[in-house]
Amino acid sequence: MPLQDFISTLDSLQSGATKAFGSAQDADALEAARIEFLGAKSGRVKEAQKGLGTVAKEDKPAAGKRFNEVKVAVEAAFEAAQARVSASPAKKPGEPLFDPTLPGKKFRIGKLHPVSQTIEELKEIMGRLGFTVADGPEIEDEYHNFEALNIPLEHPARSASDNFYLAVAGKTTGEPLLLRSQTSTVQIRVMEKTKPPVRIISLGRVYRPDEADMTHYPMFHQMEGLMIDRHVTMAHLKSVLRMFATSYLGQDVHIRFRPSFFPFTEPSVEADMRWGDRWMEFGGAGMVDPNVLAAVGYDPEEFSGFAFGLGVERLCMRRHDLKDIRDLYTNDVRFLQQF
Ligand code: FA5
Q: Model's pTM, two decimal places?
């Protein structure tokens, strides 16, 4: 075969292969083109190779060089088409745009912390009992944390070792500030601004230099409750706490009240819940002391009320059967993902 003819056969072979591979839309079309051009027995590349044997001896080097270039180019065109077709399989008309049988992408969706979940649920339960939510600052003055709550200056509850007093940079005079040790501060702040009747809860963090153990943590949450109206009695307090406990912990929960003492309530109780074969304290409560009512300008002869302060973590622990409060604050994702 004259060299010129051989070269033009190769040229049309290359352009035909590039076109066929470039326009193949799916694996079947690509396979047909592969057999036509690269088929091992009688593909057009194979045929051209046979043609090489018929070229005159002195033209062989030029013909062979061109043949190799075309072969490499045809193979490269095939590989590019193969990558394209397998990356985006062609859709047949009417076929869904995605393959619903492929495994999905797993998204890691965040969740509310169990204590936040508890807070939301407690608000919901107390909301049904007619209590609205009030808020107060975590950094408090001594008046709201102690004095207005009938805790005088010499009272041991005010000692530096029982509270987190704040050293404020540059501040050497004036009233000391502290991280609130109880949410009872919010009772005072609400009564200062509101005329009775009052029916609020307040949920938030409180801080005490308690050593951490299974049931204590230096930072924890309380739910404060306050109800002030005419003729409010201890019976109302007990039934609200009982209704709350059965709503949150289930109808079969046993709770009991023990006589206790708080400077801002009289009489005062501590409330325990049954947990397995023991009792666990979950809050303090009582009838608001007339001194406290008078301090915020309420007439104790006309109004009475009850208050309570419950440990949110303890309730959450009983509900989920958690043995150690510290688990709630270790931030182990494997633990937190269970809620
Ligand atoms: C009080 O803080 C009172 N302010 C409660 C109160 C409010 C009484 C209104 C009367 C009227 P007490 O210190 O007992 O009370 O704390 C209340 C609850 O907080 C406890 O029953 C317990 O459930 C929880 N608690 C107390 N200390 C810790 C702690 N270190 N870690 C976790 N929970 C705690």
A: 0.72
